[in-house]
Design a protein that fits this description.
heteropentamer; A alpha/beta (316); B alpha/beta (264); C mainly alpha (258); A: 316 residues; alpha/beta; five-stranded mixed β-sheet; 16% strand; globular; C: 258 residues; mainly alpha; MetI-like fold; 2 domains; binds adenosine-5'-triphosphate; binds magnesium ion; MetI-like (chains C, D); membrane (chains C, D); transport (chains C, D); cell membrane (chains C, D)
Chain lengths: 316, 264, 258, 258, 264
């Protein structure tokens, strides 16, 4: 019989951190599960959520905080996250050492530049509260991703927000060493929100076999990539022949270390959430986004589709 | 019993523009044209002759009075007309041949027959062009023709579909005397053969008398019909006819009436 | 149908079609259960418009004036360059291909670079509006000039007119209908340009408002922004059409559209 | 200057200006120490073009055919709608404002919604190219029709021609110079549209190539993509210009540009 | 010693088009026009008269032979010309008054003086319009005028800047006989007063003989000058002159020469 077609959207272009999906596709793991997966790059997490919500895509890879916001605003039409990929978020803000910013408190009254749909930017108010500054004292400017790092270098803005593995590497490409940077990651500030996860459309949620198969195949690939990141980069290279392998390898390693293979994951396996922490993070997010009421955790995440813990131990 | 007139104008007036721009071009025209009659209209420049032509063919609705064709009041452009406008208005994107073949593409029954009988129609167009001295110019574009040549093409275009009513607005004004007189002959021959109804606007009184059964003289603007002169010279008329006293008399009579108009 | 009735219908037509469209949209949303995030129902959008009236207006005005400045610059320079291209075969052959090349390039790719050069704010929006609406004007003016009847040119030359005089006395009036046709396109493109620039960077204008609304999954506000742009576009168009009627009455003297 | 010399200069001009521009750019990059990430030197871009020749070509062809399909659809429907608008005052007043409104809306805001409806791939690119290049054609064709000389219309009416016949025999040929002027604009916009759609979603075409290159900070490749689009734009323009010369020779008979 | 000719054409020929489209419009024209001379050119339609006018004024470069004005070979449009083209080519975006005032905006010294003396120039334009019977039509647009009225405006435009060389290409073709004869008188009076050099193309031999000092007769296309006839009738000529035998003889002589051309 024919394979079940599945349309899958990423949150961004094909890069090292998302290469496990490509590995699974390339090595036929999805096919082995009876799935015919097509994979497209995306335009940010909000877009990925919209694509899945509208039914244009069955499964997506998106920032769970975006999902929380969507679900809060669309009660009764919730989209579920079925797999948490980034146990720790890659969120952070970055400034040049030369700007004189030393501690998070110095950010007050400064100018922040970031794309408005950037998750770090959206969560900045929560971060600001955590570090004890008034988010309103910070002037923010919308900058398309191509502009963000360049604007920091040129001094158009005082600091920027973004994914760690994007901004640090982009700044490096513009001649700014990690040593010249002041980095405040949100997790360092005690903001333990979650990062990206796999989300499924309501229609897809009704086909547990498909979702479960998709997760099994993905985890298998993730395990291989964690053990051997080069195969991830190779898969990305196959898909987009122009990428710089060395750079993507670094990006992938960064994301593996910081976001994926956290102590919690090493202990409990990849994909699940700590219920208590998750509930707390939903509150934080609802606060930062100014949502009237936070959705219940079970309206955002479910472990229903997850394979047994033993199968989810991805750390090498 | 005489047949009812083909075209009838009753106290027709026409004003261009509206409000303060309003200007009476045609004052009060009453005329009736019989089927198969050849009518000429003469009058000073700007008196409303071209306007009259447009009224007769239904291109313009009168502001006063009534125009009727075959007893029916005219509400839109009437059928079976071939009109040579005062300005040639040839289409610059068509060759001369294609320009004069335009009516064949629009007017029934030619429209229907054109595709199948293309060669025959092209031959007809070429013959017509040759008869007015434009043989070999079919492939030229109108803007490659001289003024007089454009005017002759314009006449060809009005003739090619053998209309029942032929309207000619100063058709030979840009031609030399000999070409012009030759075309009179051709026009008369055509008329004698087909007996269409024709209205000719001209400033050449000899032309009017040579070709027409009836000559209408119009007053200065706003135009009225001030004289109707029947020309009962026998047909076919020839260039010799134009030197006969009867002919010359009519020309003089008309000339005097216009002069009177002009002197006012 | 009397002339008066015709006129009334003509005036009512745009509103009727608009209404029909909105009703259709509303019904489609309800019947097909279209999620609000994909396309909010018009009534929802109007709700937002009424609620956030002041906010929308403020952002709109920011966009409007940058757009208008860019648009006027485009008219000025477009006319000049169009005349130059129409008048000189060398400028024509030297510049036209480059202009075409430049215009085929999506401005999305250029605007970030522009902002690196000139910074963020109203200036890049003005420049983008200018750059994007400039080309149709050039093309149409140049075509208007190139299609001048040779008879008119001969007339001017017989008077010993210089090329510049021919351009001014014949070229420009003759190119007017072409110019106004292009202005309709240019006006809409100018809005596209300034809004584009606002979404790429900065924190002003309706483009920024729409982008941040869409980042918040607030699609009703995004659509309210779209509506606002559309209304402004129609406003500028109406102004152009009005001037057109006054300035090129001669060309429309035999209008099929009466 | 002999006619031959003139002709040679005319042919050489675009290349000369292009060369001048590139040299200027190169020099500016070196003199002002512009980092490659902001604007790579042209020589760098050409290096990339030569290195990645096959890849660029593949992506270009994908873009080219979607663009062309969209462009041809735009010509067809644009002509039809332009004729309808030019021919009927009711369609004119009912549709024109809506068209303007729609065109003032930045397509960037529409394309994601479009993709939700029709999916990702060539189809949204074709539709975007179509939608964006459609409007200039409509406007220009409608203007061409509206400025028909009344004498021509009277001539047709005297032959008892129907409105449709007037449209076909006079309207269309008369609107041709306007149509071709708009095609130059529409062709460039079609590229903007398809590339835009490719950057919004999908993994095909030069737009995708540029997006992923810019996400990697590989600005030389991004610019190579821009160059490629520009070249394709000029190609399509040249084709249009060639057909224009054949079909509207009558209108250009007195060209200022000789 | 007679003054050297103002305009001189030596074996001038002109071919339109290139390659297979090439067509010889003017065969071999040799003529010389003195300063202050009134010249008329007659010939069959399409023989190259309008082409000749464009050659004389330098609007077209000859393909063979040489055109010189005041002894200088002509390389571009010559100065001090007023030209009434065969087609009126009035600008549809200007009112009739603004149309006929166009030369004042272009030709020195009027150009310089126009702004300061606008009222005076407008009065001059109005007077000119009135003299051709178009008083009160200054505010109308050309497309609101009749054919004959457009033609008269066209003549006014050629006159208003008092050019030294006046070129008239069938200027009165669309006018009735009386208006036309009136304009002959006006034209002659102007000429007698200002003694400009004039070249008149016409199909009306009486017009040619009435106005001209010399009449050139051209052959069929490709045009050559086949006859030059000096008209030595005393000035001012009146309508009575046209009935005098000397006048009629010249007309007949010309007529015969053209007829011969036509018969070939
Ligand atoms: N622009 C042009 N291109 C090609 N051929 C032309 C052009 N203008 C005129 N001709 C040709 O040149 C010849 C002479 O034309 P011209 O206009 O000089 O005649 P004309 O003597 O003024 O005739 P008419 O009395 O009919 O005005 C004609 O055969 C015409 O076809
Ligand atoms: N479209 C128009 N708009 C306004 N007025 C017009 C229009 N057409 C003609 N007229 C006016 O109507 C009057 C009569 O014009 P018409 O063309 O009928 O004259 P005509 O008798 O044909 O003159 P001619 O012998 O000079 O051709 C003129 O005074 C003219 O100014
Ligand atoms: Mg008339
Ligand atoms: Mg002529």
């Amino acid at each position: 019989h024919a394979d079940t077609p599945v349309k899958f959207t990423l949150d961004w272009v094909f890069q090292g951190p998302t290469s496990p999906f490509l590995v699974a596709l390339e090595k036929g793991y999805y096919k082995d599960e009876g799935l015919d997966v097509t994979m497209d790059p995306g335009q940010g997490s909000a877009g990925a959520v919209q694509r899945v919500a509208s039914g244009a895509y069955d499964i997506g890879f998106a920032d769970v905080n975006s999902l929380i916001e969507y679900n809060a605003k669309n009660p009764g039409k919730e989209i579920l996250c079925v797999f948490m990929a980034y146990d720790f978020p890659p969120f952070g803000v970055y400034a040049l050492k030369t700007s004189g910013i030393k501690t998070p408190a110095d950010l007050a009254g400064k100018k922040l530049g970031a794309p408005v749909f950037d998750a770090s930017f959206r969560l900045f108010p929560a971060f600001a509260k955590k570090v004890g500054i008034d988010p309103k004292s910070v002037e923010s400017v919308n900058l398309t991703p191509q502009l963000r790092e360049q604007s920091l270098v040129q001094g158009t803005v005082d600091f920027i927000s973004g994914h760690y593995f994007s901004s640090v590497l982009d700044l490096e490409a513009r001649g700014v060493k990690l040593d010249d940077l002041v980095v405040f990651t949100y997790s360092d500030a005690g903001m333990d929100v979650y990062g990206n996860g796999i989300i499924v459309s309501p229609q897809m949620a009704e086909k547990p076999e498909v979702v479960k198969g998709f997760l099994r195949a993905t985890i298998k690939a993730w395990k291989e990539v964690a053990a051997n990141p080069e195969i991830g980069v190779a898969a990305a290279k196959n898909r987009d022949p122009l990428i710089d392998e060395a750079l993507e390898l670094r990006r992938l390693n960064m994301s593996l270390q910081m976001n994926v293979l956290t102590p919690y994951v090493k202990e409990n396996g990849m994909g699940d959430v700590d219920p208590e922490r998750f509930a707390r993070s939903i509150k934080d997010v609802a606060d930062a986004f100014g949502l009237p009421d936070a959705p219940a955790p079970e309206k955002v995440f479910t472990d229903y589709y997850l394979p047994p813990k033993a199968d989810r131990m991805v750390a090498p | 019993m005489p047949s009812p007139p083909l075209v009838e104008l009753k106290n027709v007036s026409l004003a261009y523009g509206e409000g303060s721009e309003r200007m009476l071009a045609l004052g009060d025209a009453t005329m009736s044209i019989d089927d198969g009659e050849f009518v000429a209209v003469v009058g000073p420049s700007g008196c409303g002759k071209s306007t009259l032509m447009k009224l007769v063919t239904g291109l313009l609705p009168p502001t006063g009075g009534e125009v009727s064709v075959r007893g029916q009041p005219v509400t839109g452009p009437i059928k079976g007309v071939g009109m040579a406008f005062q300005n040639a208005t040839l289409m610059p994107w068509r060759t001369t041949r294609d320009n004069i073949m335009l009516p064949l593409e629009v007017v029934e029954p030619h429209k229907r027959r054109l595709r199948a009988n293309r060669a025959e129609y092209i031959a007809r167009a070429e013959a017509l062009l040759a008869s007015v001295g434009l043989g070999g110019f079919g492939d030229k574009f109108p803007w490659q023709l001289s003024g007089g040549m454009q005017q002759r093409s314009n006449v060809c275009r009005a003739l090619i579909h053998e209309p029942q009513i032929l309207m000619l607005d100063e058709p030979f004004g840009a031609l030399d005397a000999f070409t012009r007189e030759e075309l009179w002959g051709i026009m008369q021959a055509l008329w004698l053969e087909r007996r269409f109804t024709a209205v000719l606007v001209t400033h050449d009184l000899r032309e009017a008398v040579y070709l027409a059964d009836t000559v209408y003289v119009m007053s200065r603007r706003p135009g009225r019909i001030v004289k109707v002169r029947t020309v009962d010279l026998p047909r076919p008329r020839t260039l010799e006819t134009t030197f006969e006293p009867a002919f010359v008399d009519i020309v003089h009579e008309l000339r005097e009436r216009i002069q009177q108009e002009h002197a006012e | 149908m009397s002339a008066l009735q015709r006129r009334a219908i003509r005036l009512a037509m745009p509103w009727l079609t608009l209404l029909a469209l909105l009703v259709l949209w509303e019904v489609a949303c309800i019947v097909f259960h279209i999620p609000e995030i994909v396309a909010p129902r018009p009534t929802r959008v109007f709700e937002v418009v009424i609620q956030r009236w002041d906010l929308l207006l403020r952002f709109c005005l920011e966009t409007l004036w940058t757009t208008l400045i860019g648009f006027f610059l485009a008219i000025g320079f477009g006319l000049l360059l169009g005349l130059a291209i129409g008048a000189s075969p060398f400028i024509y052959s030297g510049l036209y291909p480059l202009l075409i090349a430049f215009n085929a390039i999506p401005k999305v790719a250029i605007v970030p670079i522009l902002m690196i050069w000139v910074g963020i704010g109203a200036l890049p929006a003005i420049i983008t509006a200018f750059v994007i609406s400039f080309f149709p004007i050039v093309v149409n003016v140049a075509t208007g000039l190139a299609t001048i009847e040779p008879e008119m040119r001969d007339l001017m030359r017989s008077l010993g007119a210089s090329n510049r005089e021919i351009l001014v006395k014949v070229g420009i009036p003759r190119a007017m209908p072409y110019l106004f046709a292009s202005l309709k396109v240019a006006a809409t493109l100018a809005f596209v340009g300034s809004v584009l620039s606002e979404t790429v960077g900065g924190n002003r204008g309706i483009g920024f408002l729409m982008l941040s609304a869409s980042a918040r999954n607030d699609s009703a506000t995004t659509f309210a922004g779209l509506f606002a742009i559309a209304v402004m576009g129609v406003g500028v168009y109406a102004a152009c059409a009005l001037i057109e009627r006054r300035m090129t009455r001669w060309a429309f003297r035999g209008e099929l559209v009466r």
